[in-house]
Write a structure and sequence with these properties.
The protein has about 120 residues and is of the alpha+beta class. It folds into two domains: about 1-45; about 55-115, Elongation Factor Tu (Ef-tu), domain 3 (Beta Barrel), CATH 2.40.30. Helix content is about 20%, strand content about 50%. The protein has helices at about 15-20, 30-45; strands at about 1-5, 25-30, 55-65, 70-85, 90-95, 95-100, 105-110, 110, 115. The strands form four sheets. A three-stranded antiparallel β-sheet has the order 3-4-9, with no helix packed on it. The protein has a two-stranded parallel sheet with strand order 1-2. Strands 5-6 form a two-stranded antiparallel sheet.
Amino acid sequence: NAIILGFNVRPTTKAMRNADKAGVEIRTSSIIYQIVEDIEDALSGMLDPEYKEVYLGRIEIKKIFKVSKIGNIAGCYVEDGKIFADSQIRILRNSVMIYDGELASLKRYQDDAKEVIVG
């Protein structure tokens, strides 16, 4: 029963896997007051898990295509794991999160896909 709290940092993939195997919760925030509140709640024994992150995989954005009616489309390569069409994703640039939300759609080449694995 342990919690790792981080301010303005993101855990590495290896750290997330190790924490998941050990049953350790990792919480991060870019707002210091949220971290302080989590510490106070943990010390008083009132800290309930808000959500659990499950590592599914890692993708690398190779190219961004701009489509006028749709918006931006990211051409990606799955480097590790498996990505599902309804996955919650985070996009990091230089270890700074620039997007956190649901994947809008998933395609393999031009066909819709429910999941895409490495390769």
